[in-house]
Design a protein that fits this description.
alpha/beta; 18% strand; 6-stranded antiparallel β-sheet; flat; 605 residues; 17 helices
Length: 605
Amino acid sequence: MKAYFSALIDKSVPSENLKLAKNLLKDIKKPLKISKSNINVKEHNFFLFLAADKPLEDQFNSKILEEIQRKIHLRLHSYYIKNKAKLQKYLKGKRELKETAKIVENFLKEIDPNLEKGFDRRLKELISELPTKFFNLQTKSITAIWNLKEEQKVQLYLSGWTSPVFKVSEVTTDINLEKMVDKIAFLNFFCVFLEPTLLRLREMNKVLERLKIGLDETHYRSSNVKVQAKLEIFLRILSAKLSSLQNMDKTIFSIFKLFNEPKNFFIKQDFAELSRDLQTVVKQMSLKIHQGEILLIEVQDKLEKCQIRLKDYLNETKNGVKTKSMDEFKLALLSMAELSSDLFIEAEFLKLWLDFFSSDLPFFTFQSNLFNLQTPQAFETSAEYIISVRGLVKNYSLGQTTIYALRGVDLDIQDGEFVAIVGNSGAGKTTLLNCMAGLDEPDYGVVFFKGKDLHHSGDSEKSRARLLEMGFIFQSYALLPHFDTRENVALPADLAGFSKDLKNRIEELLDGVGISKQAKQYPAQLSGGQLQRVAIALALTNRPKVLFADEPTGDLDSETGKQVMELIKKFHEETKTTIIIITHEQDIAGYAQKQIKIEDGIIES
């Protein structure tokens, strides 16, 4: 018997997540009567995944299944209650929300005190209602897959569905359900995420439509200087609220796009009875997502137009602005003020809803081997590849934010190739290079260097490989300031212990990169182009099998950069050394035989 579980977690509380994982392991281990080695846990993006394996010969019954699911629900319910309380506390103490709400209230009070009271009531409802909505979504995020091999049955549990249990009989014993785990988690997630998100978009669309009509009518200013000042600040606050939703479409589209993976997966499934049920749900969701995409485009278009009109509200060259006495001003602005308070609430609600998902969810990557990414035996490599990368994942935690630098990279580089890894700033280029060279440890995945698992080697072994078989060219040159040119270039040979044999080699290198005349000069006496030539010579001293170059022309002017790249190209042609260059410039990438494009931590092409 094998079982898989998943549930949403809050990435901002790592210590609580660690505690949760340990407790869930206990909840599964005891009823199944299995050892710790038979249970695996993995935190991946926005989810916690668990896998349990119980030997076939042991007895298993449905009561144990029900007991485990009940315990998991209770454990997660307690965890989500804490999350709810934390979010409520955050919203009540959110300074920016308090300050902007106060400005809105001050203006509404000038127009009609009833508007102020209504706004205050709705704001309190938002602060109370939103944590409850997130809590409900999280409690319905729990999924389970039971592969009852001895009975040739599979049972799925998706808590977000009206009828959460799906049973399939007569399943072959060799079926691999691990590749389904994250797809099931996402399919269930969309069941609970989609409708409230579409509801928020529909509500926002209604408010923007009404506001758009209001902004098309006559614009007014007050003859009262203090009231006019409040109006102007009020309009700036509303405009800022709309600006905060500027990337709303990008966020939601990226989440909608994630549905393609489980959709394609389950459409192709050959589970006879189960497949029909899943396919029906998948098709219904696909239709809703398509409708949501159309709605999102409409909302974004109105949002941008309303934002422009709000900024230009008092621009007399663009609008017919009329100055009114206080009583006339109140009457004229009554409808507009009511609409604007609705806009504030809806914009805040939508922003908070999206903020909950936008930091992690758009960067989710589906895995076919969720629990085996660190097992070298799970991957195959060919002798023709000097470097092979499989399932490489690297994340960086920055406070409450996670940077998803690499999100499951697979890559092969042949011996003797000249490869350019291309991508924008933050795409994951340097992180990939550092992992391939053993300078940084991946969270998951395997790097094979010359057929050997690099990251399962000892530190001394990795250091020796970098010294003898790898060369490095960095944008910052990485030269010792108190060594002259010749001493810097000879340093790798000195460290390797065979510098006596390389005296002629050093002279050839200095001459080859065109800096033999600067052999006695120190880095401070050299130009940028000369410094990079020294760095190239240094990288080639020990005749490396692989040359890594990270933005080698980044600090150089275009002409000097071209000269440096010609040197690297010439060296490749003469020695057939494998060269991997990192760059964001297409003209630099053009020197390579092959270009690999990376974007948001994923190989695009």
